[in-house]
Amino acid sequence: MKRIRTEGGCLRWISGPGALLLGACVAGITPASAADSKAPAKAADADDSAEDFELVNWVEFGGGANFVTGDKGQFQAQKGERSGSFGGLEGFHYEQPVDQKGIFSIDGRGIFDNHDYSVNLELSHPDKGFVRVGYSEYRSYYDGLGGYLPSNGLIFKGLFNNELAVDRTHTYFEAGITRPNKPKVTFRYDLETRDGEKDTTHWGQTTLTPGALQKKIVPGYRDLDETRHIFAVDVRHEVSNTEFGLGGRYDLQLNKDQRNVFQQPTQGTTARILTTDEGINSDMYNVHAFTDTKLSDQWRFTTGYSFTTLHSVLTGDRVNTPIVTPLSATDTRFANLGGGSDLKQYVANINLMYTPSKTWSVVPAIRIEKDNLDGSSTDNVIAGTAVQTISPVTQYANSEKGSLFVAESLDVRYTGVTNWVFYTRLEFSQDQSDLRENFGTNTLFAPTIKRDTEWNRLVQKYSIGANWYPTRKVNVAAQYYHRMSDNNYDNPVDSTSNAVTSGDRFPAYLGEQNFDIDDVNLRATWRPIPTLTAVSRYDYQLSRVYTRPEQLAGIESATNRRHIFGEAVSWTPINWMFIQANGNYVLDETHSPVEDLTGAMTGVVLSAPNNYWTAGGVLGFVLDKKTDLQTSYSYYKADDYVNNSTVGMPYGAGARQHEVGATLTRRISKNLRWNLRYAYSKYTDQTSGGAYNYEAHGIRSSIQYRF
């Protein structure tokens, strides 16, 4: 049994020929930040002994609380923890050797009131096989507060509980046969569920706005009830110089979701809720196979094939509650929704690797994919208010789509120059697709709308790069790539007249749209002294979009420039202290000719900036041979928000966030460890008029016993 002390004070053990990795992190009890996770390892404790290396089992109990003022829903969504108290079993691990080479292990966790539970059992033997079974549950949090109108400070609070959450569970069973020189067979079953409520960007409308114009800022939410069953079987075997694999998968999904959208709340008799029942049942079958052949020391050949068929059935209704409210023109209601789709997908991959010498490697590859998709639906329109009447007229819609996708690539790598690695990659892909859509009432033989769309896409990407290692203390990496995507569309049939000149063309209005991207990125790592490491990063990307609508002239419709600067420094000036600092600055802005429109269109469309910067640091101390202290700070700022709510929709991020934390770890004995963590965070958001703001204090403590 071997113990390894890793970064952040974590202890890990690797046991048995199967290299089963087991771990327990004792440096902190909350999810560490990106900076925390890179803290340099500390020297072994002065009082550690050889006996300490055999303490591979452990149990840890802990608890804590978050004290939040402001928007609790936003805090929970960002941090993944509840506001209030929680506690329980932070972690448990027990392992026991079985039959010399085998091992039995059990891991568990249970944090009450945070809906964070798991248990995993495993019995494995490298020469026989393994059995694994487990269950886990965790909660995802969401903020359902909705939108904000700056012109009059309107935001809807209290319509429903905006502290939304979805519980996700995962149960699995896996067994495998791993006998030497025999086919390896694995069977696995997974059961996944989602249950709860989450926010949606499908917002309702209100006329409580200047000029009584409709604005969609009223929050809505989705009620989820989803179950998924997955069965998988895989067989692998090696004969001579070739490894073969064959597998199958069956995926059954049952969704009974509901979407609730508030319309004109607090506006008397016009207030209503549109409730949409969304049922989707689908089953997917997949078979796949691969071969991996080492033809010689210079040649290696691999292939892969996959066939998938997916069948889905959808059901649903949309009703108005209460039913006596006047029907708005935007309230599309329907009943008896039924339909579904059928997909067949064929994928083949072929790869060849050629290494003519130790300094060269060449890898050509090709991927071919063919998809066929058919879909259809029917429903009945609901009319009326006090008496809701289901129309006897049935609406029909169907579509057929076929596509062929071919992608080729070539990778070349050269290491013949001392301290240099050169590489290049060429990628090409071609996509040909056609889509036929029909919509009508009573019969599809005389559709109200009939549309055909055909498109051809050609994508090319050329990459070149190099890594340079001039000294043991310095390494530099540089890369450039150019990507072109040409998309050509043809719409031979449109609207009721089936004529190309028809006026009703939406959404078949594009004739051509092309994307060009140039990207340069540089990385440098510098170690001037053994205790100091600096990593620098710079990225520049220029993107251009050319658009030509049908029967109109083309224009450069958008231009985006992005600069990314990053720096990280790690320094251990003395053996009982380490320092880490990092920062990133991003300049990212998209421009469109529409910005220059004047008159009634002035200010309707603005540039789209996405500039932000982050900074943070970690400071760690070894207070004595049994006590460590680690502190951290991080800051985020985005100042791109533009208030043009009087003429359009405000976009852009405007937020600031401060986070401060401290963790104290005390090794009471070789068996017993205790830690205490305090965290403070403050978040302010301009886009919500401060409604998303919060301030939080959190404290957690745990004690771990190893045996």
Task: Describe this structure as you would to a colleague.
By secondary structure, the protein is mainly β. The protein has a domain at 144-416: Maltoporin, Chain A (Beta Barrel). Helices cover 1% and strands 70% of the residues. It has one helix at residues 72-79; strands at residues 2-5, 10-15, 20-25, 58-70, 84-98, 102-112, 116-125, 129-143, 148-149, 154-155, 163-177, 184-206, 215-239, 242-263, 272-294, 299-321, 334-357, 360-383, 389-414, 420-441, 449-471, 474-493, 510-529, 532-549, 555-574, 577-591, 608-609, 612-624, 627-639, 654-667, 672-685, 694-706. The strands form three sheets. It has a 26-stranded antiparallel barrel. A three-stranded antiparallel beta sheet has the order 1-2-3, with no helix packed on it. A hairpin with a 6-residue loop joins β11 and β12 (184-206). The chain is globular and about 75 Å long. Residues 1-52 and 495-504 have low confidence and may be disordered.
Instruction: Name the beta content range.
Output: over 45%
Largest sheet descriptor: 26 strands, antiparallel, barrel
Report how far the terminal alpha carbons are from each other. Answer: 14 Å
What is the residue-mean pLDDT, rounded to a whole number? Answer: 87
Low-confidence stretches: 1-52, 495-504
What coarse outline follows from CA principal-axis ratios? globular
* Beta strands, count: 32
Q: Could you write a compact summary of the structure shown?
A:
This protein has 707 residues and is mostly beta strands. The chain is 1% helix and 70% strand.
